[in-house]
Amino acid sequence: MMRQVIYALSLGVMVAYYFFGWGVLLQIVLGVITAIAVESAFLALRGRDIISSISDGSAILTATLLAISIPSIAPWWVIIVGVSFAIIFGKQLYGGLGNNPFNPAMLGYVFLLISYPLQMSTWQVDFLSLNHALETVFNLNNIDVISGATKLDEVKNGLSLAGSIQQLEIHSPSQAWINAGFLLGGLYLLFRKVIFWHIPASFLIGIVISSMLLWMSNVDLYLSTQNHLMLGGTMLGAFFIATDPVSASTTSKGRIIYGFLIGVLIVIIRTFGGYPDGIAFAVLLMNMTVPLIDAYTQPKVFGQ
Amino acid sequence: MADYSFNGGIVIKNPYLVDKVEIIQAPLPTKVVLSLQQLGGQVKPCVSIGDYVLVGQVIASAKDGFSVPIHAPISGVVLSIDKQTIAHQSGLKSECITIESDGKDKWIDRKNNHVDFLHYSTKALIEAIQKSGIVGLGGAGFPTHIKIDKVVDCHTLIINGTECEPGVMCDDALMQFHPREIIRGVEILLHICGAKRVIIAIEEDKQVAYHALLTFNHNDRISVNQIPTKYTSGAEKLLIKALLDVEIPSGGFAVDKGIICQNIATAKAVFDAVISHRPLVSRIVTVTGDGVRPNNFEVRLGASFEHLISLVSPNKRVHNYRMGGMMMGIDVADINAPIGKTTSAIFVNNQVQKPVIQECIRCGQCSEVCPVGLLPQQLYWHAKSENIEKALNYNLPDCIECACCDYVCPSHIPLASYFSFAKALGKQQTREQDKSNIARERFECREHRLERNKLERTQMMADKKKVLKEKMAKEQSQKQKVDEAMQRVKQAKDKR
């Protein structure tokens, strides 16, 4: 199951590789190695069976999700620290797979975002060769890649300088294509019935409705719905992050509420919050409400 | 009209399909073992060891109106009446009658009158059904005469021709080869319960059976309906939901809504009992699985599993025997256990590798397939921690243990086993609670009694004291009177 998710991720990863080069893959490799090492160590400490837990693929998935969420030129220790935090504090300390109330990858992401804001907000702009990526990530030479903020960052910072959204010329083919890649991967997961439609659908509807309301209230101030859908990690969040079964709501009705509110929260955080993209915060916030949602959305039992 | 379906359930095509469904007559077993255990009611042996019995002879009679008599399935000598292993997961033993065959298959005298059943009264028909030892042949084995009786205004009689589980073919075979008898049996049941209409439900993948029944059905009150092939549609309440869009309330019975459900094999048995005067001494059992070539056998009740399995000569690697279906069946500990009235199938499988059980990842596939709308993973959580009260809050008793959740669980957790365990635990807790309640009441009664005794005693003592006091006072006054008299006498004396 987790493996299917990893396969589905590969399309989006390949698109990201096409635009940003080897850094993307390097981060994933570093993350996966760290995840396996940390998970094995912890399982050994807890006296659990290592092989069966590693082979379920959940640690690898956590590492992959985190690795593609952070900038591909981030120094090597960033991903290692993030993945370790995600596995240890997000998962193992709660009792391992199935018992964690929070999405481990997003917990790791927020930890990195708060602790290392500089490393977490520098994104490269062009394709990196393997050599170049290695040098950058392992800090062998002085960093000489062209780096900048993401489009969502630009919007956030640019609005205070420019008069209106239109003047910022939001156009980011790379992000749109990456989002398309994750969308296709997500549809594959839906088709294979690995995930249910409830969360991605209500997630996207939440984004569409709330962004539409904002945009219609002031076209100059707020991003259009189309941009909300194509920038940042929208599709990754809708199909791969919010759908994490362990930390998401488990009833059909609950999943719809859960996904919808994540979508709304993302738009609110992107628009009014201090951070450019709000997926991690929105998911973690909604993780907290899952027991409540579940308790109030029990399905009707046959004959009652 | 309903869309002939219900929420949840899973579609599993028969995994051991054969090109042609047939019924093979199993040879007479050399020995049969008949359990005296019945659903609720009680039976008492009316033969003794060494007696010679004929096929169809009553060997254990019903003690009350709830049970049905047991008939000898073969002719021969009663070998023993003692505890024998019956088909049960733990190799449970039960009181059984064992008959050794003489190989002659001699029947009792059967009246062969062909009087139309309509000439009999309803009461006589119900009695005939009971005397023939008919119970629901679908699974639970509830006595048919009770189910069909006591119905105030029954509007619909449903005849369940859906196979209870994927892989089982015994009902399919029965419908293909005995459609005339089934329709006649249904007419008898209809006559007894006086329903307005009958619906015979057949799954869509059983086209031959469907057309066979259609051909022989000339009664305009009987309709033959096809429903989608989906597992758990054989469950009574879900079948009613699919056919009539009526939901039987939790804890309620179909009869309360004027609906009676009978199995297709039961209808055939009713025909045999009423028209052919043949008591229930055999049934059709599907022997299937990846260890054998699937077949249906008509076999005498009480024959051992081994008797049937030897007919299909499985290869030597076969290890796993399962009674009932692949979903709800139970692994049989001892294949010498006898076939009973509700044994619909035996699954013979090559040693199955049990998948490794992993942690629940809360994926929710289980609640998606649960036909009764439960949340199996929450139930599992509470059942595992033996928090029965919480599990009851999540409607544990409504679980029908269909094991759809087991089937889809990516972590291979045996959820249904957890639920049946939790149910048993819940029952035990209620029993213990009742017990301790009774004990407490008894204790309180005793305390109360002692208190009352004490009170009564003090009251008695007080009364006694009072009486004594009065007596003493009386005596005193008498004494005084005497004294006064004496004094007067003395004074008189002194004066003199």
TrEMBL record, chain A:
<feature type="transmembrane region" description="Helical">
    <location>
        <begin position="279"/>
        <end position="297"/>
    </location>
</feature>
<keyword id="KW-0812">Transmembrane</keyword>
<keyword id="KW-1278">Translocase</keyword>
<keyword id="KW-0813">Transport</keyword>
<dbReference type="InterPro" id="IPR011303">
    <property type="entry name" value="RnfD_bac"/>
</dbReference>
<keyword id="KW-0288">FMN</keyword>
<feature type="transmembrane region" description="Helical">
    <location>
        <begin position="6"/>
        <end position="38"/>
    </location>
</feature>
<feature type="modified residue" description="FMN phosphoryl threonine">
    <location>
        <position position="150"/>
    </location>
</feature>
<comment type="function">
    <text>Part of a membrane-bound complex that couples electron transfer with translocation of ions across the membrane.</text>
</comment>
<keyword id="KW-0597">Phosphoprotein</keyword>
<keyword id="KW-1003">Cell membrane</keyword>
<keyword id="KW-1133">Transmembrane helix</keyword>
<feature type="transmembrane region" description="Helical">
    <location>
        <begin position="228"/>
        <end position="244"/>
    </location>
</feature>
<dbReference type="GO" id="GO:0022900">
    <property type="term" value="P:electron transport chain"/>
</dbReference>
<keyword id="KW-0285">Flavoprotein</keyword>
<protein>
    <recommendedName>
        <fullName>Ion-translocating oxidoreductase complex subunit D</fullName>
        <ecNumber>7.-.-.-</ecNumber>
    </recommendedName>
</protein>
<dbReference type="GO" id="GO:0005886">
    <property type="term" value="C:plasma membrane"/>
</dbReference>
<keyword id="KW-0249">Electron transport</keyword>
<keyword id="KW-0472">Membrane</keyword>
<comment type="similarity">
    <text>Belongs to the NqrB/RnfD family.</text>
</comment>
<feature type="transmembrane region" description="Helical">
    <location>
        <begin position="256"/>
        <end position="273"/>
    </location>
</feature>
<keyword id="KW-0997">Cell inner membrane</keyword>
Automatic annotation (TrEMBL), chain B:
<dbReference type="InterPro" id="IPR026902">
    <property type="entry name" value="RnfC_N"/>
</dbReference>
<dbReference type="Pfam" id="PF13375">
    <property type="entry name" value="RnfC_N"/>
</dbReference>
<dbReference type="GO" id="GO:0046872">
    <property type="term" value="F:metal ion binding"/>
</dbReference>
<feature type="binding site">
    <location>
        <position position="405"/>
    </location>
    <ligand>
        <name>[4Fe-4S] cluster 2</name>
    </ligand>
</feature>
<dbReference type="InterPro" id="IPR017900">
    <property type="entry name" value="4Fe4S_Fe_S_CS"/>
</dbReference>
<dbReference type="InterPro" id="IPR017896">
    <property type="entry name" value="4Fe4S_Fe-S-bd"/>
</dbReference>
<dbReference type="GO" id="GO:0051539">
    <property type="term" value="F:4 iron, 4 sulfur cluster binding"/>
</dbReference>
<keyword id="KW-1278">Translocase</keyword>
<protein>
    <recommendedName>
        <fullName>Ion-translocating oxidoreductase complex subunit C</fullName>
        <ecNumber>7.-.-.-</ecNumber>
    </recommendedName>
</protein>
<dbReference type="InterPro" id="IPR010208">
    <property type="entry name" value="Ion_transpt_RnfC/RsxC"/>
</dbReference>
<feature type="binding site">
    <location>
        <position position="402"/>
    </location>
    <ligand>
        <name>[4Fe-4S] cluster 2</name>
    </ligand>
</feature>
<feature type="domain" description="4Fe-4S ferredoxin-type">
    <location>
        <begin position="353"/>
        <end position="380"/>
    </location>
</feature>
<feature type="binding site">
    <location>
        <position position="363"/>
    </location>
    <ligand>
        <name>[4Fe-4S] cluster 1</name>
    </ligand>
</feature>
<keyword id="KW-0813">Transport</keyword>
<keyword id="KW-0249">Electron transport</keyword>
<comment type="subunit">
    <text>The complex is composed of six subunits: RnfA, RnfB, RnfC, RnfD, RnfE and RnfG.</text>
</comment>
<keyword id="KW-0472">Membrane</keyword>
<dbReference type="GO" id="GO:0009055">
    <property type="term" value="F:electron transfer activity"/>
</dbReference>
<keyword id="KW-0997">Cell inner membrane</keyword>
<keyword id="KW-1003">Cell membrane</keyword>
<keyword id="KW-0677">Repeat</keyword>
<dbReference type="InterPro" id="IPR037225">
    <property type="entry name" value="Nuo51_FMN-bd_sf"/>
</dbReference>
